[in-house]
Write a structure and sequence with these properties.
Strand content: 5-15%
Strand order of the largest sheet: 10-11-12-9-8-13-14
Distance between the termini: 85 Å
Oligomer: single chain
Number of strands: 16
Largest sheet: 7 strands, mixed
Helix content: 40-55%
Number of helices: 17
Structural class: alpha/beta
Radius of gyration: 26 Å
């Protein structure tokens, strides 16, 4: 790079970061100015003592008047309209909480996906609510039966910080579509966004239909221990275990959306440049702070170095060799997460592993901004920290394999992941992978996209979660499939009573086969 180019790049970085700093300073004011009108809460923490009475208020109102289809459709329409009306304030709040977050990534992940899910719920709600006929079998004829999907009551939603609007509003909208009332606990790590959510929901819903609890981890622990009719939690596996333990005394049904180490397997036939482009999108979207981001990549040994160079070209084309495109790159959300991620890299270097920054953040106080450039760790062993814990950031381990069966066996030996990404145009390779591995969800020849497909259930398995939601799966999870059997005016079962003699004896033996 020439001196002139370097100077221009440095100037561009300084200008971009000045703009980011100014935007962050202004974001609180912007969020406040554009905050939804109406009963705007002050954003102060919710006392633990207020949790149980709030839940009882929601439950009493639900029992008094369970939302019918018209109410649900009206609520979802109002939520959609208010969400679009205050989307700019949402973007400002999220950007401020992260220090900087790509506004376009916010529009995609916390904007487009939410609107799409609400539209899907509204367009299918009539059919989902319709009772489904069920066979009773010839032995119970002429009785008839059906399955009704009845709302369960009050649903708790515990949302994380990485997609603080998406992962709060999609479960909430699903619970509303299912006919429930909802109590939401947003993340304390994105306080501006949580206050925005509280104000938005106060504008759309009466306080006895949707409530929001703001507070720290201690309040979150108390929230998980409330006797909900269903609880949806999205977060880490470690915290998921605590949530499950807190819910156990009440036998609260759970949907746990957790995480884990989601692998990508690049088969020898797949074009390396295309693999790099799609891996780069999946890994460095939102700065890698995505529960279904590729957590490590397995690639055939002969092409490992080619993949490294292809990833370097992708990153530098997107963000610049010196991170000139810093305005398009999301920062690590807080100092604790930043130190955790840099600690992974320190551990890798201490083990003598090759750490490959794919761009250099020059002209920037990276530590102050929590700007961690996309970074690879080559051939880490299982003892390396990056291979023991979910990374949840812009660090990507690359490991080579000698055979596809060996790569599959490596994934098979780990906990079942939340996501799996096979890359191959050879159907036999893909089927071999899918036939042996079980994951929460799969996107073949790309990353992340199965999350955005409304008709696909989303959820983990084992340490990566339990239960599913999105679309019909979410409606089913947050309703009770209640079987109903109608007996006919006359039925042979009227005869099935003691004394079991004569024709009654013969009838029972015939029915029993």
């Amino acid at each position: 790079m020439s001196t002139h180019t370097t100077s221009a790049a440095t100037a561009a970085i300084i200008a971009a970061n000045a703009a980011i700093t100014a935007a962050t300073a202004e974001a609180d004011a912007a969020a406040a100015d554009a905050r939804p009108a109406g009963p705007a809460p002050d954003g102060s923490p919710t006392p633990v003592e207020a949790l149980a009475p709030t839940l009882e208020r929601l439950r009493a109102a639900w029992r008094a008047r369970k939302p019918d289809r018209a109410q649900r459709m009206h609520d979802l329409a109002r939520l959609r309209a208010a969400f679009l009306r205050h989307r700019d304030a949402m973007e400002a709040a999220i950007r401020a909480d992260f220090g900087h977050r790509s506004p376009h990534e916010t529009l995609i992940s916390d904007g487009m996906v939410v609107v799409s899910e609400i539209d899907h719920l509204r367009s299918h709600l009539r059919g989902w609510m319709r009772p489904r006929r069920a066979s009773v079998g010839w032995r119970l004829w002429p009785a008839r039966a059906q399955v009704r999907h009845e709302p369960v009551g009050v649903v708790g939603v515990m949302a994380p910080w990485n997609y603080p609007v998406n992962l709060a509003l999609i479960p909430l909208a699903t619970a509303i579509a299912a006919g429930n009332h909802v109590y939401v606990k947003p993340s304390e790590h994105t306080p501006r966004t949580s206050a925005w959510l509280q104000a938005l929901l106060a504008e759309v819903f009466p306080q006895d239909r949707v409530a929001v609890a703001l507070g720290d981890a201690a309040l979150g622990a108390a929230f998980a221990g409330l006797p909900f009719d269903h609880l949806v939690f999205t977060g880490s596996t470690a915290v998921g275990r605590k949530v499950m333990a807190a819910a156990a005394p009440n036998l609260t049904p759970l949907t746990l959306e957790l995480g884990g180490k989601s692998p990508a397997i690049v088969c020898p036939d797949f074009p390396i440049e295309q693999a790099a482009a799609r891996l780069a999108t999946g890994k460095w979207f939102n700065g890698g702070q995505t529960c279904i981001a590729p957590d490590y990549v397995l690639v055939d040994a002969a092409r490992r170095d080619a993949l490294v160079e292809a990833l370097r070209r992708e990153v530098q084309a997107r963000y610049g060799a010196a991170m000139e495109g810093a305005a398009h790159y999301t920062r690590v959300v807080n100092d604790g997460q930043y130190r955790r991620l840099t600690g992974y890299l320190d551990d890798a270097r201490a083990r003598g592993l090759t750490v490959v920054p794919l761009a250099e953040a020059t002209g920037v106080d990276a530590d102050a901004e929590r700007l961690l450039p996309p970074t690879l760790v080559l051939e880490p062993g299982d003892d390396a920290t990056v291979m023991q814990e979910e990374i949840f950031g812009p660090v990507l381990p690359i490991r080579s394999y000698a055979s596809l069966d060996g790569a599959i066996a490596e994934v098979e030996g780990r906990d079942r992941p939340l996501a799996l990404y096979p890359f191959s145009h050879d159907r036999a390779n893909v089927e071999r992978i899918l036939g042996r591995l079980v994951a929460g969800g799969v996107t073949v020849n790309d990353t992340l996209l199965h999350f955005a497909a409304n008709a696909l259930p989303f959820g983990g398995i084992g340490p990566s979660g339990m239960g599913q939601y999105h679309g019909r799966a979410g409606f089913d999870a947050l309703t009770k499939a209640m079987p109903v059997l109608w007996q006919a005016r006359w039925s042979a079962t009227d005869l099935l009573k003691p004394p079991y003699t004569g024709k009654v004896d013969q009838l029972i033996r015939w029915l029993a086969g």
